């Protein structure tokens, strides 16, 4: 495949997002990633189905550049296949509960007995140690326990984000940790455990809010889209849609006041002297910004704000995001064909670019068990042995 991680073999036992997307990032930069899946297809293959075979949008997003083998690791013959796979691997990715790892013999001690320098990258819902270490959970658990959901919307009811930012953030942390572990292994020859947790990720993203609460006991409450520590910071209605404007820092506020044509009004009033004061009086500033936006189209508003070097963006529907000229021109999305899709899937490339060793989407996500025979042949199984494993329900 090529890339900065060429020569690194990763076994992906992950499910849903945190594990699979971590492995996908490694694959995009050259690692050989083998997804190990249930014989009937793992449950995360079928979330938000878009293809004839039921493959889902989430699967297409987080499984490009991978090979796929099917395997039942709970059978003795499956354990032998897995032992041979692990012996060839550098990294095992498995965002599974500790008790499941032990049952599948994917815990670190079992892996290390096969490959002493193996790196195990895992992620759990709650991390540990702690009384909830063995509990399971999804993205939303991290959102609700970090303070994020409490502060979102207007509070009755509280709202979680529609996108799985905790899962994807955990995948990013795990990919970073895996790279650090590979660097350490290159120095010392030692493997180790890389452990992420959904709750830890969520807390790391909301940490500034938690610090503010702990230090000055501010007891903030949700205020919808209205920012609380700077202004104007809100989503405003235009003549044909909505636009976001975020002003933080006095230089930006001066530019905003100049754009309003009212520098004397806004720059000489003690209520607006600094960010926190502007946040405390944000409703006054937002009312002025709302009047400015109401008389303009979304395009007119974002163009004027953009030319004034004020952070802004239109509120786009999913279709509008696909059609936006900057998103198209920047090449963030790559059309990827997949068997049974009525049209190619626009898959995001890794959201970081390396000038000398860039990542690349070189192959579509695998069909179920697409590479089982090839991978097993590389492990020393002949055609008869592979057929026997299939007949006995191991693969």
The DSSP helix count reads 18
- Determine the structural class based on helices, strands and strand pairing: alpha/beta
Helix content: 40-55%
Major sheet summary line:
6 strands, parallel
Strand content bin: 5-15%
The SSE order reads EHEHEHEHHEHHEHHEEHHHHHEHHEEHH
Calculate the terminal CA-CA distance, rounded to whole Å. Answer: 26 Å
Radius of gyration, taken over Cα atoms and rounded to an integer in Å = 25 Å
Overall outline: elongated
Strand order, largest beta sheet: 3-2-1-4-5-6
Uncertain segments of ≥5 residues (pLDDT<50)? none
Tally the beta strands.
11
If you average the pLDDT, what whole number results?
A: 96
Keywords: Transferase
Protein name: Crotonobetainyl-CoA:carnitine CoA-transferase CaiB-like acyl-CoA transferase
What topology emerges from the helices and strands here?
Layout: E1 9-12, H1 18-28, E2 32-37, H2 57-62, E3 66-70, H3 76-87, E4 91-93, H4 98-104, H5 108-114, E5 119-124, H6 139-145, H7 165-188, E6 193-197, H8 198-205, H9 207-216, E7 233-237, E8 242-246, H10 250-260, H11 263-267, H12 275-280, H13 282-294, H14 298-307, E9 312-314, H15 318-323, H16 325-330, E10 333-336, E11 345-348, H17 372-378, H18 383-391
Parallel strand pairs: 1-2, 1-4, 2-3, 4-5, 5-6
Antiparallel strand pairs: 7-8, 8-9, 10-11
Structure write-up:
There is one protein chain. The model has no long low-confidence stretch (mean pLDDT 96). The strands form 3 sheets. The chain has a 6-stranded parallel sheet with strand order 3-2-1-4-5-6, sandwiched between helices. Helix 1 crosses helix 7, helix 6 crosses helix 8 and helix 7 packs across helix 8. It has 18 helices and 11 strands. It has 395 residues and is of the alpha/beta class. This is Crotonobetainyl-CoA:carnitine CoA-transferase CaiB-like acyl-CoA transferase. It comes from Bradyrhizobium ottawaense.
């Amino acid at each position: 495949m090529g890339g900065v991680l060429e020569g690194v073999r990763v076994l992906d036992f992950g499910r849903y997002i945190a594990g699979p997307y971590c492995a996908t990032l490694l694959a995009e930069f050259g690692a050989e990633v083998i997804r190990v899946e249930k014989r009937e297809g793992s449950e995360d293959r079928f979330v938000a189905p878009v293809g004839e075979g039921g493959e889902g949008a989430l699967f297409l997003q987080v499984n490009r550049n991978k090979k796929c083998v099917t395997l039942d690791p709970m059978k003795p013959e499956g354990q032998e296949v897995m032992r041979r796979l692990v012996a060839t691997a550098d990294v095992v990715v498995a965002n599974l509960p500790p008790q499941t790892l032990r049952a599948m013999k994917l815990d670190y001690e079992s892996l290390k007995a096969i490959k002493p320098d193996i790196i195990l990258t895992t992620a759990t819902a709650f991390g540990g140690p702690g009384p909830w270490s063995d509990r399971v959970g999804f993205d939303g658990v991290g959102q609700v326990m970090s303070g994020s959901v409490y502060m979102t919307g207007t509070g009755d009811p509280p709202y979680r984000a529609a996108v799985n930012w905790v899962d994807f953030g955990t995948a990013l942390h795990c990919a970073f940790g895996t790279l650090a572990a590979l660097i350490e292994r290159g120095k010392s020859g030692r493997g180790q455990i890389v452990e992420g947790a959904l709750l830890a990720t969520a807390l790391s993203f909301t940490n500034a809010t938690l610090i503010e609460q702990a230090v000055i006991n501010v007891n903030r409450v949700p205020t919808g889209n209205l920012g609380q520590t700077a202004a104007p910071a809100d989503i405003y209605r235009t003549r044909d849609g909505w636009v976001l404007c975020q002003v933080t820092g006095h230089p930006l506020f001066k530019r905003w006041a100049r754009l309003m044509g009212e520098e004397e009004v806004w720059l000489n009033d003690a209520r607006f002297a600094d960010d926190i004061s502007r946040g405390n009086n944000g409703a006054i500033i937002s009312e002025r910004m709302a009047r400015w936006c109401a008389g303009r189209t979304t395009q007119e508003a974002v163009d004027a704000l953009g030319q004034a070097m004020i952070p802004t963006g239109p509120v786009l529907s999913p279709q509008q995001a696909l059609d936006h000229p900057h998103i198209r021109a920047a090449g963030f999305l790559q059309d990827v064909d997949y068997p049974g899709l009525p049209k190619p899937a626009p898959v995001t490339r890794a959201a970081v670019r390396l000038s000398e060793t860039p990542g690349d989407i070189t192959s579509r996500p695998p069909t179920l068990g697409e590479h089982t025979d090839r991978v097993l042949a590389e492990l020393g199984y002949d055609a008869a042995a592979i057929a026997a494993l299939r007949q006995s329900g191991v693969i």
